[in-house]
Design goal:
8-stranded mixed beta sheet; alpha/beta; 10 helices
């Protein structure tokens, strides 16, 4: 069997994501390239590794065994590179971090900047994911550190408080909601919305609407929270954004902000790892920095 590290990372990503499409995206490969690699792994190994079905893929018994060893190998490789990076001049290290939308846009930039300035030889591979996906990926060893809603954490993760993320509805100041302090999500589902483009947070909000038996009436999707607020301030529709995003709006944007009553709209964010002893020295340093400056 001749599996390289890319094969192992791809296989773990596919097992974690449940689909080859999802796994290919996480591994940074095209779908045809990922499919070809997986086929070659099965041919070279002379064993079936994945059961393919309409709803995705699941590992066979042999696939479970491969996933177990792949996690061990990739963790050892990461530790080796991290330890060598402490002694070798010019050798760069990379720490993989997954975060949900609010953490990535509202909280992490200010936390990460001073640490990165002090560690010029370390790069961060940042990816945005929903909290449930982050929990699975960190548990599987596909990322060293995650920042997620603790409600989605699994029992094998170590959690440390990081921040409180509240989602609010933004509307024009002349909107009928403007006089309200709180509103239930179900009570505004008949309204038109401004969404966020390509975002784990938007996927989360959309899923909440589906759980209530409907879909958001989304007029347009913007690339930033500021863009959503600017549209909402003009009366183009309602938006759902982190409360912190409203606080830092420029003075030229005036919106009414109404907190959502729903439990899912107030999230305790935590920094998570699988096992501190398995972290590379660089990841351990970053983890210590994030947790030492965290505020419950």
């Amino acid at each position: 069997m001749r599996f390289d590290l890319t094969d192992l990372r791809l296989f773990l990503a596919v097992v974690d994501g449940g689909t080859i499409t999802h796994g290919a995206a996480d591994a940074g490969l095209s779908l045809p390239a990922a499919s070809e690699r997986l086929r070659d792994m099965e041919v070279d190994g002379g064993v079936k590794l994945l059961e393919r079905g309409r709803r995705g893929v699941t590992p066979t018994e042999a696939g479970e065994s491969l996933a177990h060893h792949a996690r061990l190998i990739l963790r050892q490789v990461a530790q080796m590179r991290g330890e060598l990076g402490e002694h070798a001049k010019g050798l760069r290290a990379t720490v993989r971090v997954l975060a949900n939308t609010a953490a990535l846009t509202e909280f992490l930039p200010g936390k990460l900047a001073p640490w990165m300035a002090m560690h010029p030889q370390v790069d961060l591979e940042m990816r945005e994911r929903q909290s449930a996906e982050i929990a699975r990926a960190v548990s599987a060893g596909l990322a060293e550190i995650g920042v997620l809603s603790e409600a989605n954490a699994t029992g094998d993760l170590q959690l440390h408080p990081f921040a409180l993320d509240r989602l609010v509805v933004v509307a024009a100041r002349h909107d009928e909601l403007a006089g309200s302090k709180r509103v239930a999500f179900a009570d505004i589902l008949h309204r038109q919305f401004i969404g966020l483009m390509g975002s784990a947070l938007q996927d989360h909000v959309d899923a909440q609407a589906v759980s209530l038996g409907t879909r958001l009436k989304t007029r347009v999707r913007m690339r930033s929270f500021e863009g959503i607020c600017r549209m909402a301030s003009a009366g183009a529709g309602l938006g759902i954004v982190p409360e912190t995003a409203v606080r830092r709006l420029p003075g030229s944007i005036h919106v009414a902000s109404v907190r959502l009553l729903d439990a899912w709209a107030t999230r305790k964010l935590s920094v998570c790892i699988h096992n501190r002893e398995e972290l590379t020295p660089q990841a351990r340093s970053l983890f210590a920095h994030l947790t030492s400056s965290a505020r419950p």
